[in-house]
Design brief:
The complex is a heterodimer of chains A (377) and B (199).
Chain A lengths: L14 E5 L3 E2 L5 E2 L2 E8 L9 E5 L26 E2 L4 E2 L4 E5 L31 H14 L7 E5 L1 H12 L6 E5 L7 H15 L17 H15 L2 H7 L18 H16 L2 H13 L10 H4 L6 E7 L7 H13 L4 E6 L13 H12 L4
Parallel strand pairs in A: 5-8, 5-9, 6-7, 9-10, 10-11, 11-12
Antiparallel strand pairs in A: 1-4, 2-3, 4-8
Helix pairs in contact in A: 1-2, 3-4, 3-7, 4-6
Chain B lengths: L8 H10 L5 E5 L5 H10 L2 E6 L2 H9 L3 E4 L14 E7 L8 H11 E9 L4 H8 L24 H10 L2 E10 L2 E2 L4 H4 L2 E8 L1
Parallel strand pairs in B: 1-2, 1-4, 2-3, 4-5
Antiparallel strand pairs in B: 5-8, 6-7, 6-8
Classes of the chains: A alpha/beta (377), B alpha/beta (199).
Family (chain A): Belongs to the AB hydrolase superfamily. MetX family.
Subcellular location (chain A): Cytoplasm
Catalytic activity (chain A): L-homoserine + succinyl-CoA = O-succinyl-L-homoserine + CoA
Chain lengths: 377, 199
């Protein structure tokens, strides 16, 4: 499919936009002032019609593509999708990545200083929802002079943000692209999130969320949260293929230290995550996921909830994704179709579970490429 | 869903003639989306295609049509009653195992259904069978051991099923390769098209 040159967007750097007008929040109250950190790739065209917003998932950031100066291993989280000649082609589109509020990668979040106290927000950082993120993104688009986005896309939680965009600002989105997501979390999804949160909340180093001033990090909680999260991102088959029942040693040691390779892998992922991610951001973000449900105000009627959307849609799911299974994407597809929306749906065969949306599965990327090619700018 | 390669244009033209301007159409087994695209251009329809094969889904996306990747053997349970004016199945009916089920579903979801299929009663096929060999032709391009077709029936068989199941034949067209056949189509036509309604 891809004979074109598939390049990197090259060296990139993040920018910061400061907003001094308070942002009203769905949970009540407002955020008095805030920063949004973002990156852009490609060039905004003269009539400003080629902008594409990429929304990140739980642990992602504004760093979608490219490398940071002097850091050869710093490729953005969707670098395989975004770049010159890639499916989301930066020769055609102006691509924007933005770190969500409540995050820990530069946008205002629990680690930022609360202007009222001069100390980090910590546990006092207000609850932010998917809709609040979208509102803050819309202000960033205003700042960048973008009235209408050619597309908003994202995977997982990012897909929910893309959907929220099409409902909150219907006239500002031409294409909503919802990948490996769901119109709301299932009971089981919330249950897994709650286990992860409890791991953090019960870590003695959490100190009610105000651990910064004590110079500690609830590492154990973060590790456990990531370990359980990671299990839900993979599939049974993928884990079996990758690790099987392989042992670290030739013979069983009959101890509680690392024995099976999967244990080693989960510990490694947990440690890595605890080294860079903020515990309060994890709590806030999983709660934002739990609360997301556009149909809630419509008595659970998703079709009614989507009536105000006017974008065209592309929805994709992956066969072995059990976190947000194909069935959840189909719910969304049919609710859009019942509303007469233009919608396409790809159900990609993949062994890699929920994580598939981050991988460069050839059929997945071919479908994305074909869809992006038909987006007029 | 597998369809015969290179759908013939006359098939599209008959369907375009039958489908009313601006209607909502669903094409089951839409291949690369050519029919939906043809109907959008000539009849300004609002269409969706269903296709199970990923390469064909990608081709449909490249053609700019709405395509939904789903398996037809699971039925059309996600669609509402009467959600479409026409549910079309072009040259695929013979490749679906659950013939009765899919016909019933097409007429539940669609006000009308349009189907086309190769007529196994075509005289050349009869000659071939008479000579002791399964027919292979432009409209039946496969060998018995690699055909995607799972149901083998004639126009007369199909019409009998429609009568038994209370399906009304609203219109019929039959072709010998690309030439329309008026006389004794069950014998002289290699391809049959039907526009169907609920009784």
């Amino acid at each position: 499919m891809s004979t074109e040159n598939q390049g990197s967007v090259g060296i990139v750097s993040a920018q910061t936009a400061h907003f001094s007008e308070p942002l009203p929040l769905r949970a009540g109250g407002s955020l008095p002032a805030y920063d949004l950190v973002y990156e852009t790739y490609g060039t905004l065209n003269a009539d400003r019609s080629n902008a594409v917003l990429v929304c990140h998932a739980l642990s992602g950031s504004h760093h979608v593509a490219g490398l940071y100066e002097g850091k050869p291993k710093s490729a953005g989280w969707w670098d395989n999708l975004v770049g010159p000649g890639k499916p989301l082609d930066t020769d055609k589109f102006f691509v924007i990545g933005v770190n969500n509020l409540g995050g820990c990668f530069g946008s205002t979040g629990p680690m930022s200083l609360n202007p009222a106290t001069g100390k980090p927000w910590g546990a006092a950082f207000p609850f932010v929802t998917v809709e609040d993120w979208v509102d803050s993104h819309a202000r960033l688009m205003d700042r960048l002079g973008i009235q209408q986005l050619a597309a908003v896309l994202g995977g997982s939680l990012g897909g929910m943000q893309a959907l929220a965009w099409t409902l909150r600002y219907p006239e500002r989105v031409r294409h909503g692209m919802v990948i490996a997501a769901a119109p709301k979390l299932s009971t089981e999804n919330i249950a897994f999130n709650e286990v992860a949160r409890q791991a953090i909340l019960t870590d003695p180093e959490f100190h009610g969320g105000n651990f910064y001033e004590r110079g500690v990090v609830p590492v154990r909680g973060l590790r456990l949260a990531r370990m359980i999260g990671h299990i839900t991102y993979l599939s049974d088959d993928a884990m079996n293929d990758k690790f099987g029942r392989k042992l670290r040693h030739d013979t069983p040691q009959y101890h509680f230290d690392v024995e099976f390779e999967i244990e080693s892998y989960l510990r490694y992922q947990g440690d890595k995550f605890a080294g860079f991610f903020d515990a309060n951001t994890y709590l806030l973000t999983t709660k934002a996921l739990d609360y997301f449900d556009p149909a809630w105000e419509y008595g659970g009627d998703l079709e009614a909830a989507l009536a105000r959307a006017s974008a065209d849609f592309f929805v994709a799911s992956f066969s072995t994704d059990w976190r947000f299974s194909p069935k959840r994407s189909q719910e969304l597809v049919f609710a859009l179709l019942h509303n007469g929306r233009r919608v396409s749906y790809a159900e990609i065969d993949s062994e890699a579970g929920h994580d598939s949306f981050l991988l460069d599965n050839p059929q997945y990327h071919a479908a994305m490429r074909a869809y992006f090619k038909n987006i007029e700018v | 869903m597998t369809t015969i390669e290179n759908r013939q244009r006359f098939d599209f033209e008959v369907i375009a003639r039958w489908v009313s301007e601006g209607s909502r159409v669903l094409d089951l087994g839409c291949d690369d989306g050519s029919l939906i695209r043809h109907l959008e251009r000539t009849r300004h329809t609002r269409g969706y295609g269903i296709e199970s094969d990923t390469d064909r889904v990608v081709a449909s996306l490249a053609n700019g049509i709405n395509v939904l990747q789903m398996n037809l053997e699971q039925g059309l349970s996600g669609f509402k009653d009467g959600e479409f004016d026409y549910v079309i199945m072009s040259l695929s009916l013979q490749a679906v195992r659950n013939t009765e089920g899919i016909l019933a579903e097409m007429l539940r979801v669609g006000r009308e259904a349009v189907v086309s299929f190769p007529n196994f009663g075509y005289w050349r096929h009869r000659v071939s069978i008479n000579e002791g060999r399964m027919p292979v032709s432009d409209s039946l391009p496969y060998q018995w051991y690699n055909t995607p077709n799972v149901r083998f029936f004639t126009m007369a068989d199909f019409e009998q099923l429609c009568e038994m199941r209370g399906i009304r034949v609203l219109e019929r067209a039959a072709f010998d390769e690309d030439r329309e056949v008026e006389l004794e189509p069950n014998n002289y036509a290699s391809l049959a098209l039907y526009r169907l309604g609920r009784a």
